[in-house]
Amino acid sequence: MPWYNGDYPPSYKNQPVHIREKATEIANEILKESGDEGIAIATGLKQARAYFKEHPKESKKASTRNQK
Fold first, then answer.
1. Which of 5, 9, 36, 40 is the most exposed place for a label (fewest CB within 10 A)?
2. Is the separation of the CB atoms in 12 and 20 below 8 Å?
3. Is 31 within 8 Å of 44 (Cβ atoms)?
């Protein structure tokens, strides 16, 4: 089941909004390809964390955008 409009996996609940949104985006793409929700959820979160670790300025932009 794809996630959208604030609907996200329960394991994303305590993540910062920018990570949660990116992880959901990634997980949805993986879900389209593999169909395995467990892999999609875990990989989405791992890749979102890695993305923002490599792009810290994007993290700040996303946080600012989400506060509006």
1. 5
2. yes
3. no
| DSSP per residue, 41-67 | HHHHHHHHHHHHHH-HHHHHHHHHHHH
Is a pLDDT exceeding 70 seen at residue 68?
no
Phi and psi (nearest 5°) for 59? -60, -45
pLDDT of residue 59: 72
Q: 12-47, pLDDT tens digit by residue? A: 999 999 999 999 999 999 999 988 999 999 999 999
d(CA 43, CA 16): 17
User: Domain spans of the chain?
Assistant: 14-67
Nearest to 12 by CA among 35, 28, 34, 32: 28
